[in-house]
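Lecture 7 notes: from sequence to structure.
We start with the chain below.
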Amino acid sequence: MTRLGIIAAIFLLAGAPSAVAQTTQPEAPQILTDAFQCAEIQDDAQRLACYDSAVGRLRTAQTQGQIVTIDREQAETLDREILRLHPAQSQPPVAKREW
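Predicted structure tokens for the same chain:
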């Protein structure tokens, strides 16, 4: 998977754990917004350096527990577990995801 693909996947999934307490999708964390801005750099070497730096910061944030990533299957499992633990709720506390 390319770095851009990894960054995109992290963006899509980074909001999933925090969406448990919210019904709307939260804004992207600044660390992801910074990474996305790398795509706007025209110079190949500068863009690559930007991505390298952004991925390094993302890796550090994940290692330190500042961000958490989960895949779609894990998010759906989390949704089911929340409903199982809180069956009285008619709607899941997690926003409907359009995968």
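Points to note: The chain has one domain: 3-21+29-85. The mean pLDDT is 77.
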